[in-house]
Design a protein that fits this description.
Layout: H1 3-21, H2 43-46, E1 51-53, E2 56-66, E3 72-78, E4 81-86, E5 96-101, E6 104-110
Antiparallel strand pairs: 1-2, 2-6, 3-4, 4-5, 5-6
Length: 123
């Protein structure tokens, strides 16, 4: 009978160690950055005015991307509006993004931007 309290105490410590290892982390886990959306989209975007980046004009589209903050990288700020690219994008960028709601980003493209294919016509 003398061994029962020792075994009981040992089981308590073992149980607490197991449960402690199973707890989840709190705080900023999975959130690499927290980009607050504006209370209202900038008027110049709603008017269809372009964003200027690296000497080129990028126009707002009706397209919206659903992305988490961890999936985008901040690359600039235009007229007080931060703009982003997807982390998977490489230069030259085909589109830029502005955040306008939780996990919603407006797409900007160069005017007349199309994927270029090269071919030669035979004269």
């Amino acid at each position: 009978m003398r061994g029962c309290p020792i075994v009981f105490v040992g089981l308590i410590f073992l149980g607490s160690a197991i449960f402690q290892g199973c707890t989840t982390a709190t705080g900023n886990e999975g959130k690499f950055q927290n980009i607050l959306p504006p209370s209202q989209e900038a008027q110049w975007i709603q008017n269809g005015d372009p964003l200027e980046f690296e000497g080129e004009y990028w126009y707002p589209q009706d397209d919206v991307e659903v992305l988490t903050d961890a999936e985008v990288s901040l690359i600039g700020n235009y007229q007080g509006v931060p703009f982003f690219v997807e982390k998977v994008d490489v230069r030259p960028y085909s589109r830029l993004l502005t955040k306008f709601s939780r996990n919603k980003f407006r797409v900007f493209e160069k005017q007349g931007y199309q994927l270029k294919t090269s071919y030669e016509a035979n004269p």
